[in-house]
Amino acid sequence: MATAAHWLAGARPRTLPAAVAPVLAGSGVAAYDDAFVGWKAALALVVSLALQVAVNYANDYSDGIRGTDDERVGPLRLVGSGLATPGAVKRAAFLAFGVAGVAGLALAATTAWWLVAVGLLCVLAAWYYTGGSKPYGYLGLGEVMVFVFFGLVAVVGTTYVQTETWGDTGWPAVLAGCGVGALACAILVVNNLRDIPTDTVSGKITLAVRLGDRRTRAFFAVLVLLSAAALVGVAVLTTPWALLGLAFVALAVPACRIVLGGAVGPGLIPVLQQTGLAELLWALGCAVGLAVA
Q1: What is the DSSP track for 142-194?
Q2: Which of 41, 75, 167, 240 could bridge across to 27 with cysteines, CB 3.0–4.6 Å?
Q3: pTM given for the model
């Protein structure tokens, strides 16, 4: 039987910075426009965190019943390890989706009802990443959806629910979304890089499987460079203080060294945490810089 510690591990807390970062960045853009609304930012954070946990449990369930996790190298999976039944993990995923839905409805009710449609798209994207008969995560499209939903949609959406206008904050929010989204993709890339051998055997054709080991490592580095370029773009459109986000390189550079150095299997696991914290530093530095400008 899975213990509370197992369920916590199954929620994959090391991925949660990827949920906090877009809310920080989006709120920073709103603060630059003197439109920061604390309670709306808090609700956006609940939505983002709940969706991230839901994605993690949903992936655990879907990959587990397909047998993809039978020979897993990375962090604990509840279904694949046999610690929890598929039904229990599926219920945990839908509970997390429910929490995100309630918070999302509150934001929609106080901002614009069309946000409900955006929320539904987020839930569908989260479930069908590895769920359904033809999961897009098995077709090499996972990084695209992570960039869109945990980058652009999350950052721009957080900004919009506070400013309630596209106005002058539109392009800074888009660029911030690109920067956060690039690092969120980098987390998935290194995760899939580690799993190339087992994913190939199980038929899970991720982007890493399609690109191969060498090009996947190069792609990780390119994503880090793109996130830095996006931050410079935000600074150009707003204030040089946004460049405080460049503190992220303190963690991103060591992560790149490990990836480009040829680490495999368990040797790549620390890079997941480093990249997640780098994303958090990117967003925090950018947000603080925008807020004090």
Answers
A1: HHHHHHIIIIIIHHHHHHHHHH-S-TTTHHHHHHHHHHHHHHHHHHHHHHHHH
A2: 41
A3: 0.91
Domain at 123, CATH number: 1.10.600
pLDDT in tens, 103-160: 999 999 999 999 999 999 999 998 898 887 788 888 888 899 999 999 999 999 999 9
Counted domains in the chain: 1
Q: Which residues contact 253 (CB under 8 A, 6 or more apart)?
A: none
Low-confidence ranges of the chain (pLDDT < 70): 68-75
Amino acid 70: pLDDT: 54
Whole domain around residue 71: which residue ranges?
4-292
| Residue owning tokens 């652009």 | 152
How far apart are alpha carbons 278 and 272 in whole angstroms? 10
Separation in Å, CA 176 to CA 60, 219, 274, 282: 30, 20, 20, 9
